[in-house]
Amino acid sequence: MRTVKAGLIGLGTIGTGVARLLLEEGDSLARKVGVRIELKRIADVNPARRRALPMPAGVFTTSADRVITDPEIEIAIELIGGLHPAKEIVLTALRNGKHVVTANKALLATYGSELFETALKHQRCISFEASVGGGIPIISAIRDGFVANKIESVFGIVNGTTNYILTQMTLANKPYEQALAEAQRNGYAERDPHADVSGLDSTHKLAILARLCFDVDVDYTKIYREGIDHVFLEDIQDAKSLGYTLKLLAIGKKRGGAVELRVHPTLLPDTHPLSAVSGVFNAICVNGNWVGETMLYGRGAGQQPTTSAVVADIVDVALGRAQATFLNARCFRRKARPAKVVDMEDVTCRYFLRFTVVDKPGVLAQISGVLGKEMISIAAVVQPERFEGNLAPLVLMTHPAPERSVRRALRKIDKLKVVRAKSRLLRVEG
Ligand code: HSE
């Protein structure tokens, strides 16, 4: 049986999972796929990490160079995360003729074009199944399974930490701070949770998905982003009373020659399949012109699911499949078309609006008057019984309206004397 030698860089949580799988289950994997993957070297700057699992003598090294300069190693597995030195390691590995497998979504979202261009120049591939959706084979589904389709939209829950927090808020009525603290205690949220709760991690993943789905090069900083760090329990409770569930969605939609790309808390009807995706799970919906609506669901993070995805990539490269798709796909080619991202103000959707108003006759008429002038049509009105002194919340659901009109209306409404706090806006999909 043919043997392909691989080298792993970064023996953290995912690296340890990958090393364990290849060392402990390498024989059965080889029998299954018809090629043996030999983990020739494992590198980590921290020598103590060597103790993470038993490995043959001479395999462990503290120097990534011993992986990326070894002429016998065909596949470099980058699992250190972060931008630097991950970028330099990947570039050197490619220049030295190695294929690269990585789970590093921040790296691909930031330097994707440069890395892909270098890979193509050296006729090597970069595989990154684990960068989005953990163990969910979303990259191969889009790249291979849905290849016959023009993808019209891709959207879903791509961050497990924020989904866990929102689920706690929704099902256990916990305020944001308490749900976040619990996520941290359970090891789901980092001590510095910024990348997850601000939606940044989701924009990285959406940039990767958009490249594959829409054949464009996306600057992730151009993606409209709102995190969950300003979500109130009242948002969730009021939405619930109207039959909606709040989720942090990453949304990509084709709009003629442009694309809508946005990450924000989103209300979905309770009947939408994404509303049932709870806890740390991820789910991604892909709509293609032939396949129609699809949804892929599974664990979006964690050692075992992510290991599953990384090893799938390693096998794909070892079999030569990854090279064929990577070297031919237009979305990785030099100077992929830069995405024309639709301005958020030009997005049209339905809105949930909450106003804090003086509870007296004529208030609703003043607010609906402003909305009417902006041609925003109201679909439902509720006044939850939650008074604070003589102030009361007023919740409106609109029919589809352009964001520009809604923002303009809210600016006017916030100036009304009967409105006593900044109005709340949440977008509705599905
Ligand atoms: N922080 C990410 C999440 C990990 O919570 O989904 C996987 O990218």
**Ions and ligands:** L-homoserine
Radius of gyration: 24 Å
Mean pLDDT: 96
**What low-confidence regions span 5 or more consecutive residues with pLDDT below 50?**
none
Structural class: alpha/beta
Which range does the strand content fall in?
Answer: 15-25%
Distance between the termini: 50 Å
Describe the structure.
This protein is an alpha/beta fold. Helices cover 37% and strands 25% of the residues. The chain is built from 14 helices and 17 strands. The strands form two sheets. Strands 7, 8, 9, 10, 11, 12, 13, 14, 15, 16 and 17 form an eleven-stranded mixed sheet that branches. Helix 3 (86-95) runs parallel beside helix 4 (105-121), helix 4 packs parallel to helix 9 (200-214) and helix 6 packs across helix 7 (176-185). It is elongated. The termini are far apart. 46% of the residues are buried. The model has no long low-confidence stretch (mean pLDDT 96). It binds L-homoserine (HSE).
Attribute tags:
alpha/beta; binds L-homoserine; six-stranded parallel beta sheet; eleven-stranded mixed beta sheet; 17 strands
Topology, element by element:
Elements: E1 3-9, H1 13-33, E2 36-43, E3 60-61, H2 65-68, E4 75-78, H3 86-95, E5 99-102, H4 105-121, E6 126-127, H5 138-145, E7 151-157, H6 160-172, H7 176-185, H8 194-197, H9 200-214, E8 224-225, H10 233-241, E9 244-255, E10 258-269, E11 281-288, E12 292-299, H11 303-319, H12 321-328, E13 348-358, H13 363-373, E14 378-382, E15 391-398, E16 401-402, H14 403-413, E17 424-428
Parallel strand pairs: 1-2, 1-4, 2-3, 4-5, 5-6, 8-10, 10-17
Antiparallel strand pairs: 7-9, 7-11, 9-10, 11-12, 13-15, 13-16, 13-17, 14-15
L-homoserine (HSE) is lined by residues 159-161, 196, 201, 300-301.
